[in-house]
Amino acid sequence: MLIEWLPLIILGFGLGLLHALDADHVMAISALANQSPSIKKTLFFSLHWALGHGGILLASGFLLFGLGLAIPDNLQYWAEIMVGALLIVLGVSFFWRFRKLKINLVTHKHDDIVHTHLVDESHTHTANNNEHSTDNKSEEIIKVHQPIMIGVLHGLAGSAPALALIPAVTSGQLSVAITYLMVFSLGVILSMLAFGLGFSWIQQYLNKYYQRIFTLCRHIIALTAIIVGAFLIAKTI
C-alpha cells in the first residue's frame, strides 16, 4: 500500500516545498521578520505561519473530502484581500516605528577600528522604559498570533489550487487525501523554515558588518511588502 502511494507522497512533499516559496508567502515572513530581526524570531514566525497555513488546509480538506463541504468563494476572496491588507499594514508599521524610535547610525573609532551601529535615541532615558513596558507586552502578544493568522489567511486564499489536484490522484479516499495534505504541509513547513533561517542569517550578517546596507534593506523590504500587498488587492478586486 505504501509503495503504491509513494509517488503521491513525494509529489505532495515536493509541491509543498515549492508552494511555501510563493512570492506573497515569502514576503509575509520577510515583513514579519523585518519588524525585529533575529534568527530565533524569524524561525518562530516561519514555523507558526506554516502551522497556520497547514492547519487550515487540513481542515478544508477534511470538510471537502470528508463531509462534502467546500469553502465559500467569498471567504477565499476576502482572505486574499486581507492578506494584501496585512502586508501593507506590516510595511507601513515598519516605517512608522522606525521614525518613532528615532534610530540613527552612529560611528565610533577605537584605535584603528571603526564601528558603526544603530542607536535608538527614544530609549536612552530609563524613565521611558517603564512607560513603554505595557505597550511592549501588548505588542509581543500580537506578534505571537500574527504569523498564525497570516498563515491561516494564506491557507484560505490558496486552498482551491492545493485541493484541486487531490480528487484526481486519491481515488476519493479520505485517508489518502489527508495524508497527501499532511505531507504537503510538512513540505511547506520545512521549506519556510529553510527560507527563514537563510533570511535571518543574512540579516544578522548585514547588521553586524554593514549597518547602512542592513538599514537600507529593511526599508526596501517594507516598501516591497506594501507594493506586493497592493498588487494582491488589485489583482483580487
Number of helices: 9
Outline: globular
Strand order of the largest sheet: 1-2
Helix coverage percent of residues?
Answer: over 70%
Give a quick rundown of the structure.
The protein has 237 residues and is mainly α. It is built from nine helices and two strands. The termini are far apart.
Structural summary, described in words:
- This protein is mainly α and 237 residues long.
- The chain has one domain (2-101, 141-236).
- It has helices spanning 2-19, 23-35, 39-66, 73-101, 126-157, 159-164, 166-170, 174-209, 211-236; strands at 103-110, 113-120.
- A two-stranded antiparallel ribbon has the order 1-2.
- A hairpin with a 2-residue loop joins strand 1 and strand 2.
- The longest helix is centred in the last third of the chain and has 36 residues, at 174-209.
- It is globular.
- The model is unreliable at 120-132 (pLDDT under 50).
Key attributes of the depicted protein:
81% helix, mainly alpha, 237 residues, two-stranded antiparallel ribbon
